[in-house]
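Section 5.1 Outputs to date
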Amino acid sequence: MASQKFVDQLNVQIGNEFAAHQQYVACAIYYDALTMPQMASFFFKQAIEERDHAMMMVRYLLDADAEVRIPGVEAPTNSFATIVEPVALALEQEKRVTGQISELTGLARAENDFASDQFMQWFIKEQVEEVATMSDLLTVTTRAQHDIEAIEEYVAREQSNEADDPTAPAIAGAGV
């Protein structure tokens, strides 16, 4: 059984993941409106990833026979002054989520909740990748902010080889 403290905090994190989902949808819409299809596609995919992270957490709680509570989320930022701003916001969001994931892992360990600790390990690895990806994208968008085609080419080149991770936790509702 998952510790109640961990369950309570994981339910909060589910809301954080859904909020990240909505923020990435807002970023995608911003880039789509600028006719930047690669950036729009990148952020739509990121949104799906965040939604899937929330649903992995839901699946874990269901499997652990723990209560799932889906919290409401605040509205995302929808307006941006520059093409760099959404990426900077995304990087800060990923850094914040990394801290949240670390806190959850620490809580599981403090509670001697070894199953929850193991569950969180995949998310730790994922956050390292997410921060690195957003950091690189921020560097490119900052450097090439006046050359939209260069940004689009970078995203098309760098994001074209992503494969599904077979080590990822199960997603609630997937394959149903």
